[in-house]
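Example record

The entry below shows one chain as it appears in the dataset: sequence first, then structure tokens.
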Amino acid sequence: MDAPRAVVIGSGIGGLTAAVALHRSGWQVTVLERAGSLQPVGAGIGLAPNAQRALDVIGLGDEIRSLAAWQGEGGMRSPDGRWLSRTDSAAAAERFGGPLVLVHRAPLIDRIAARLPASAIRTDCPAYLVDPGVAGGRRAMIRTADGTIEADLVIGADGIHSAVRGALFPDHPGPSYAGFTTWRVVVPAPPEPFAPHETWGRGALWGTQPLKDGRIYAYAAAAAPAGERADDERAELLRRFGDWHTPVPEIIAAARPEGVLRNDVYQMNRPLPAFHRGRTVLVGDSAHAMAPTLGQGGNQAIEDGIVLAHHVAPGGDLGAGLAGYTADRLPRTAAIVRKAAQVTRLMRLRSAPAVAVRDLVMSTLSRLGPGLVLRTFDGIADWRPPQHTYAAGTKDAQARPRSASTEEDRDVRR
């Protein structure tokens, strides 16, 4: 009997993770990517312990952990350099069972894709959902330039402005502008060492983080009208952040103008009614676009792919499996979308009195103990996948697998 066929539309982190997990569980998988290559448009991504444990399921977790570069202290600062809060990397690793690992998106994509047969990935291949199919009935149908493809399962991993989502839920409003734009750069490390930090100003923030290869990943955000662009985005960064504390000006000066990426941020304020319909299911930003203020967008996409494969084992009841996936993932991701939006509102504060109060609260919490700051990620970074993992070298190595839902998620469903 031939293996059932799954087709993934989109080759981002969530789509590829789903493809690998499904392939390992016995599905015949094809990934369709409209771009000419898998090289992502992006810079760095922070992989928290929850995503690392998910990657354990496909044998990639320890390889990612080996790329951890943050050692010692870091924290949050004000534009004049004053520390608002400090967090120790060891304390974070102890609390959540592993380090925060910052990696460049390109090698991460390469590492995940390498776990698929080369023939499974088709680039330069735009694909459109024609029919989502019926679980237990007719197969789903996809149209490409070469003709139509029938599939037992279709995974929509086509990003924030997902056409698959629009086909499944045409009455849903989709994501809305979050009120701010972001910039990202990767540059050589400055001569003087610095502690990793995220700096919050008035309606703006800047983050500077080390990569394992010695380079620096920096990101910035600022309240701005949707669609606004500058002729020279590096000059725009200098205008907005050039008088902030060291090493912010030095990082901007080291960036090539063409190497500055800028993207407006969109978020799914209204959750979807489900993450599936018929034989078609959504993962990642297609399902739950969120602001990057918790750094969880890519992490949640990775979780999606692993949990999806857990629920839709070949030969099982596909309809029940997809319903189980929605039941596990929709409440959790909706809660994280809301929490990220709450952090966004704090970041976007612009009045001097409001910013002063915000900074005072951060400083007070930090003085009371770093655990109070890390508590923001309780129920997020301590998540574990439903499958058995090896989780070598972490305190979860002997942990008994549990439901993909956390207690917090079950509270949301109630």
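Notes for this example: Residues 50 and 380 are 7 Å apart (CA to CA). The two ends are 42 Å apart (CA to CA).
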